[in-house]
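To whoever picks this up:

The parser on our side crashed when reading a file containing two proteins. I've narrowed it down to the boundary between the first structure block and the second sequence. Both blocks are reproduced below exactly, byte for byte. First block:
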Amino acid sequence: MRAVLLLALVALAAARVEPEGLLYPERLPADAPKRRPNIIQILTDDQDAHMGGDWWQPGLRKHLANEGLNFTNYITNFAVCCPSRATILAGQCAHNTGVVGLGGDRGMLNPLGGFQRFVDMGLEERTAAYVLQQAGYRTGLVGKYLNGYTSQTAWHVPKGWDRWFAFGEIDYYNFTISDQGANKLYGTEPEDYSTDVLTAEAVKFIQQARDDDRPFFLYLAPYACHRPHIPAPRHIGKYKGLKIPRVPSWNASEQHTRQKVSFMRDLPPLDHETADALDFEYQTRAETLLAVDDMIEAVIGALKELGELDNTYIFYTADNGYKLGHHRLSGKITAYENDIRLPFFARGPGVPRGLVLPHLVGNVDLAPTWLDVAGVKDPYAAQRDGISLGPLLRGEAAALENPDTHRVGILIEKPVTTAFLDLHVSILVPEARPGALDLFEGRRPRRLANGSWPQQVLDFEFQSRHFNERAAARLSDKSAWYYGYEKEAGFRKYIELALQNGISLEGLIKGSNEEFPVAYYGLRTYSRGGTYKLIQYPNGYELYDLTADPHEVHNIYSTAPRELVAELETTLAGLKDCKGASCRVRSISAVSANPLRR
């Protein structure tokens, strides 16, 4: 025993970990499994709560929704990739991680973000993965880490990860992987499809439990359903004809948009071409998730084969949501439900089966939850802003029966004014007839070489000429290469593509600027008394009663009872700089009283 303690102290000193207790897990209940539970976090990209409905993914329904908990009010603190992922790993709101942008080497992107910012803030040694590793877990990251982590930084394997298989240049094909710090390039063959590559690696990681007595933590992060929404070959066309539900917020009417803050009032309505493009994007987003469903099946199968399924917690969620023409906008970043409310499913030992819970939970809760279910003492507990979901996962009656016992309010934020400039576009493929696109240097459209490709709309990501030139330089000639020619200022551009399967086409792209050039703070509530959202912009407020107006088209800020508005504003003001326990809103009396329902 003394020898074991000495080795632990030596390891602690070598790692320069100051807080006590890092290597000492909490004692587990007497009836708990002898081996500590495994933990798997599956994290998709840009999957909103609607797109996370288990009807898209039968495997998700079968293995997670039916076998565990489905949380319908899971909220991301910051609705864009990198800040959200930093929050997930560190268990802190974006204003505390300091990661409030995407980072990267393109001047259009916020420098206060990205992988390098995460490193500079000292967060890699405070992640839940690092704590779990120090407590004896075998840890693995398979898939997407943080924006700004590229093939140029692939040599860097962060502390806290035993297995590192992370995207460098990220895509569905023609991507790179940092395999324990060494760059690995994948091509354009069907077996190179990135979701399938990650699935195979995840299964290998799980199978290593045969020869390793340690419990494991696996962070599995596919690219789906991020743009450019390329389904696996076996899934192309599976949801052909699928259309976006025409809810009130979709292509919102003038009556609704004029209730928004000033810079949103002049957004033009969607035209028919844009609507068709967005419908096709909706279809292909759903189709990319079918490979994630296959991933779930493979993970469950590997756990069953090892006899580990009943001793493994599996969590499923996304980094942020996504709009497709809702509020006349596309993309993410806003405080609206499409962007901040995400799917969240959980199963594991002792987790009630088949329950749908309205409790207000969020991405800030994941790190504390992982450590709680592992029985690991967290030396950074005071710095975590979230709340463990342990009582809900353990089926404690008081927690399940009263959602207000968890929290009644949660912060949503974009605390910087720097724009996230990201053009969201679709290629509109015209009829192949002479002169149809005789607009640029005499170019004329060519006929599609392979009629199997959808001819009416092809989704595409066009961020900037600089980015496209760089991408063209690094992609092989078997892959999609592209050049952009500006026709005019704005969002109509000429495009020429040579695709991996031999199709050639030309077309015009039309896009909406995903730039959301203002900071905002928001408060999202859920209580048995009512569900509200207050958004504070530099030039105004929006307030929605989500019970009566789930699509956020009726701004009631000027008409709501003043006691409700005042308490929501006071609560939000207290959250902007919150840290630790002060981020956990347990009571808002005006919400509980629900003056709008009197």
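<<boundary where parser fails>>
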Amino acid sequence: MARRSKTDPHERCCIRPCFGQVGLLDWHATRPTRSGRDGPDMRKFAFILSLLLLLPIGAAVALPFLVPVGAIVAEVERQVEAATGRALTIKGRVDLSYFPSIAVTADQVHFAGIRQGEDLLAVEQLAVRLRLMPLLRGKAEVEKFVLTAPVIDLTVDKQGKPNWDVSLAAAPAPADHASPGFMSDLSLAEVEIVDGRMRYTDARTGMVREATDVDVTLSLPDLDGPLTLEAALLLNGTPIALDLGIEPVRPLLSGGKAGMALRVAGAGTGLDVKGQVERQGEAPLSLSGDLSLTVTSLADLIKVATGAVPSDLPVDDLTMTGKLSGTPSRLALAGLSAKAGDLTANGNLSVKLDGLRPALGGSLSLPKLELDRYLPAPAAADPAAPAPEVGPAGWSKERIDLSAMRSADLDMTLQLAGLLVKGVEVGATTLTLKLTDGRLNAGLADTALFGGTIGGKLTLDAGRQTNALAVLAHAKGVQAEPLLTRFAGFDKLSGATDANIDIRASGTNQQELVGSLNGGGNVLFLNGAVKGVNLAQIVRSAIGHGSAEPPQTDFAEMGGTFTLTDGIAATEDFHLLAPLLRVTGKGNVNLPSKRVDMRLTPKLVGSLEGQGTTRIDVDGITVPVRVRGSFDNLSWTPDLSSSVKAALKDPKKAQDALEKLKTKDGAKGLLKGLLGKKQ
């Protein structure tokens, strides 16, 4: 023992006291020599074996004396920041122990997010304990891993950069998961998250989602056994429970498949997925399996998903089944079969999760829909509620809120077997919907409606400051009377409609949209009638040959082209072709003020029956008619002053018209009409 008195002071104060506690080194050094089996070789072997057994224990006991805890913490913080570019800060107490288990308890652990932002991760307390001896054998047995009150703050800044995007400064080479080396086995006993909170904020859209009271328990006896995870949380104040099972786990480390079962319940919703999880090489995990979804309260589900409280939903329940496949960035559902109330749908759906917002896509086939059953009923008037503000002509000034269109993207194709809207049958059609960053492009294939077809495209842009609308549509052979009666409450016009329109508008309410209408088009009505006025009768009355006829102007063709400027539709080529009448006209329809100002010029052709059996040749006689007034109170009056002006400009033409009147009464009536005199 005397020869050890000259050892290094560091060894005397740190290493030797630790090993001396067991006394085995001194025992082997002073044990007497014996012959035979206990000769020098056996003594050497026993001594080496003792060293091998005691080395890890002694080192673990001695390490706290060799390296101060503060130095270990500082080195860990330095290495993390060097690798990620983010600061790891342990602000509270740190306790370390190495025997019989490696244990670390740290308070107030923070991992930085983006510059001048909230921490990506803040943990009130982190506690880890691993068994030492299994670790030396290549098996990690985690006795305890508990995060107490962690706060995870996920943020996307205005430039679209997420705070969890950590670029490693020097990423290590990918591990060979197939090689049976270090960490060939893993066991997780007590792994928990207690009273956690997670928040997601998108500075570009202002969207905020938060989960609170997050409690998670995870268990993994070994890599060949089942991994189970149970979680409970509050999402937007609604309790959500999650259960996940995966078995076995080992194939997912080296490339392979494992069975998987997932159950999510809450907000009136139950989701079950049974299938498998797969990993191929360095690719992210993927899953596939059978999905079953049952929703007993769509209102509760929408509230949890969007934060908004919906009202007057046409249905409140939903069931859905299909084949699910997915990766962390995309989910797809094939062979979908869904039912909401009495509405059924079949097809395929997918959702992308790696963009600025969720992007839903796919195609669905739907049977004939009685749409009236799913449209909200008109709200009952509330005497106590203030009436919505309206403009002078009754257009609403209430803001049209389309902000929900910016919460997700959409690329869908709907195959409809038909629609029933307000008692109107619409034929089978295909509807395409593409929504990107609040801009909707909708396309309607040619669709049977009221004896004809309609089709077109619509663009609706839910802008940050104002909304924008564009319509490009066409109609062929559509009967005007039932269409206008059903959807506009106007029953004064009949005939088959051929039309093409291209219009645009912008604004935040009805009044602004109507006042900004621009564009144009052409409209033609065939073989119909204008009810409420008989233009031929007006002309007959002007020339003294009025007769009792129904207030209706029949026509073979009526229409023209129009231009829209700031909500005012103007035409210069209106025309109407009737059996005894030709009408041309021009004027405008002021949509913002809901008023009409048109000048029509009817021209009689052929002859009219006078009183008795007298026939009057009236070919070429014209008597202009002025159409003026509000939409609900139009007046139709002869514009006799225009007739006088025309006669003064061309006396010969007026004389020719008079000569065509073969009766004295006819000529007298026409003169009196032109000069505005009473009989």
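After patching the parser it read the second block fine. The longest helix spans residues 40-66. The two ends are 151 Å apart (CA to CA).
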